[in-house]
Amino acid sequence: MPDPLVALDPDEPGQTPPPRLSVRGLTKRYGDELAVEDLSLEVAPGEILGLVGPNGAGKTTTLRSIAGILPIQHGQVLVGGYDIARDEARAKSQLAWVPDDPQPFDSLTVAEHLEFTAHLYRVSDWRARAAELLELFELTDKRDALGGELSRGMRQKLAFCSAWLAHPGVVMLDEPLSGLDPRGIRAARQAISDLAGSGVAVVLSSHLLELIEALAGRLLIMDRGKAVFTGTLAEAREQIAQGQASSLEEIFLAVTEGDDEPERAAQ
Ligand code: ATP
C-alpha cells in the first residue's frame, strides 16, 4: 500500500497538502452520557490547532479517541491518511500523544524510554537527537533516573522528548505546560512552535487561552461535546465579536456563556 504521506508530497508545487489529521463525525458516549457529538476537524502539516472548551466539554475524550485509546463508536479518524480503526498500527506510527499527566514506565530510565521510543517509531541515528532533546528540556542530569523517580514536571518533559524524538506527522498535546517550571514553560512554548515550523500537525489543548492565542493558527472551541466555533481568531472576531478587537478569552466567554441558562430559566 502506498504511504499517503509520500504519495501526496506537501512540498510538491501546486499541490495543496492534505490534512495530516482528519476527524469526521466523531461521536462518543459513556453509557448514557454523550461526551462528543458529531465532531469534525482537520489539521494541516505545520498547523497548530488550538482546542479549547469548558471543563467537561469533551476535549480529552476527543484526543483519546484520536489516539486510539478509546474505541471509535461513530465517525472516522484518519492520521496521515490511515484510519485509526482499520489500520491502527500505521495510523499510530504517524501520531504522538502527550497526555496532561504522562505516566512513564517505572522500571525504565529516561534514556531507556528514548531508546524504546526510537525503536518503536523506527527512528534511525537517534542518539544525537535524543541528547539534544534532553538538553533542551533540561533532563540531561536525569538520563539514568527511573520513570518512577521523576517529578510531575520531569515526566512531562520526558513525554515531550519522546514525542519530539518520534517526530511523527501529528503531535497532540493535552495541557502541555501544567507542571512545568518557568524555564520549562519557556522551552516548551518555543519547542511547540518549532515543531509546527518543521511541518508537524499539532493539536494543542489547553485552558491557557493566552498560550492558544500566541501559538494556534486555528481554533476549535468545544462546548458540551460539540464544536461551537472552528476558524482563525480573526474569523472569530469577525463572526462573534462583529470585527471588534477581542481577546480569545472574550470570544471564549461569548460562545460558551449560555451554559447555565437552562438552570437559571428553570428557577
Ligand atoms: P476538562 O477541561 O475538565 O479536562 P474535557 O473537555 O477534557 O474536560 P472530558 O474529560 O472529555 O472533558 O469529559 C467529557 C464528558 O465525558 C464529561 O461530562 C465527563 O464527565 C464525561 N466522561 C469523561 N470520561 C468519562 C469516563 N471515563 N466515564 C464516564 N464519563 C466520562
Describe this structure in words.
This protein has 267 residues and is α/β, with parallel strands linked by helices. It has eleven helices and ten strands. Strands 6-7-8-3-9-10 form a six-stranded mixed sheet, sandwiched between helices. A four-stranded antiparallel sheet has the order 2-1-4-5. The longest helix has 16 residues. The N terminus and C terminus are likely disordered. The structure holds adenosine-5'-triphosphate. Adenosine-5'-triphosphate binds next to strand 2 and helix 2.
Offer a concise description of the structure.
This protein has about 270 residues and is an alpha/beta fold.
Task: Summarize the topology.
Blueprint: H1 4-7, E1 21-30, E2 33-43, E3 48-52, H2 59-66, E4 74-79, E5 82-83, H3 88-93, E6 95-98, H4 110-120, H5 127-136, H6 152-166, E7 170-174, H7 182-197, E8 201-205, H8 209-215, E9 218-223, E10 226-231, H9 233-240, H10 248-256, H11 261-266
Parallel strand pairs: 3-8, 3-9, 6-7, 7-8
Antiparallel strand pairs: 1-2, 1-4, 4-5, 9-10
Helix pairs in contact: 4-6, 5-6, 9-10
The protein binds adenosine-5'-triphosphate.
In whole angstroms, the N-to-C terminal distance is 60 Å
Q: Average pLDDT value?
A: 89
> Which term fits the overall shape?
globular
Number of helices: 11
Based on DSSP secondary structure assignment, what is the total number of beta strands?
10
Report the uncertain regions: 1-11, 261-267
Helix content: 25-40%
